[in-house]
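ESCALATION

Customer reports they have been waiting on this structure for their group meeting. Please prioritize. Original submission:
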Amino acid sequence: MTVPRALAAPILRRKGLERGAPFPRGAVHRRVAMVYPSPYRAGMSSLGFQWIATVLAERGFQVERVFLPEDVEAWRKARACPVSEETLTPLSEFPLLCVSLAYELELVGLIELLRLAGIPPLRRDRAALRKGHAGHPRVLLGGPLTFSNPLPAAPFVDGMILGEADDVVGDAVDAFFEDGDLGALARLPGGYLPDVHGESLPPVARADDALLPARSRIWSPEAELHDMFLIEGERGCHRGCTFCVMRRDPKPDPVTGSKTSGGMRLVTPERLLELVPADAPRVGLVGAAISDHPQLVGLLEALLDAKKGIGISSLRGDRVALKPEIPRLLRLGGYNTLTVASDAASQRLRRTLSKGTTEAQLLACAEAARLNDYRLLKVYMMLGVPDEQDEDIEELVAFTRRLAAIHPVALGIAPFVPKRNTPLDGATFAGIAVVERRLDRVRAGLKGVRAEVRPTSARWAWVEHQLAQAGWEGGEACLRATEAGGAFSAWKREFGPEGHPAPWRVEATG
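Update from on-call: job pushed to the front of the queue and completed.
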């Protein structure tokens, strides 16, 4: 199958713009497609995706990247199969697809990729067609979603690696090429086989600290994090925010034995600096709690001395307030927006979420943005957290006006979605109408001040919530909604009235 020239041209163009170290050429008979079910700009900004591709390539496999096309409809009309970045090989011709899934709604992208490639999305349909011949590729899934609830993805995959796949994925893929299937996963840490385990998830895998840090090998001007070499400054988190999958969790779950995070695992500045390529124009420091790294200031200074631009994956408001050198150095490294999180509308709610950030610290962040001439202070937060009241929204409006009096502010607001493997697992979704009404109140209260409101969709947060709490049946509902066109109305038909269990959930729980 040949991809039409008009569809291949953007792939060839962006490939020519990439810099860094191309993946080493492996054995042709051991070809693996590294699949990201979102477009290139997102996939090439995913450190985990690039790192696992590197791990497999250095193990001797022929690794090629495949992304969801930017314009799915154009590929569908051309009846073209998605192809790899490296050789334009059709996705359907790879024996094994290694998929990285970041969050629930990317399931749609996985389904679309498989459909475009002529691969039946459901595992059972592929198995029925496979009898008597090699048939369709096997699908192995990993990624951030596996720390929470990957069960809705189970109908589409042959196996998963739950948790940190660094020192498991090579053995799993080796065994696949030796045995022709993924059965060896049952013996590996974090290995999950839907046909063996059903809906009972094994404990997540934890990588050997000696394998840290994960790092990318390619940077691109067309990635969301453009021209940025990504490297892991630490892994895990020592904090206990009750809504977060990566929170400190020193005690394993009594049923599954799963331990999401045992705290921070630090990488020394010396190790990080020796791994940064000399020709990388920008360096992105990645980690759930990277701003808590005790040697962060010295590391930022060293990167600036090496004439590198700087990026950082997350900033804690208390650290910005405590260490004013951090916002100063980031500004020198090219930052225009100082981004922190308050996570809840009021100080009371932050305490209930075990979020230690205070109003005084956030005010100090606004002062730091002003003093260092940032264009904007961006504050991430959630609406609809448990026990949120109108009084909390009033406090949010009043406090944001105080911030905006110091420096221009943008509120990045996401509806709260409770996740599995967190203390708030099973909490009620606030409701689309409730979230939208509170957003309207925030907008009205901030008229005339230097404060923008940048919300994500309450409707799609509700869909995310349904999937986040679902089992296998939720995945099949996702398939039906996608095949029906993917509009919100299609999801409503599958999940039923908001505030009530969807019909498939009633069946699943009996």
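Sent to customer with the following note: The chain has four domains: 5-197, 227-312, 315-453, 470-510.
Escalation resolved.
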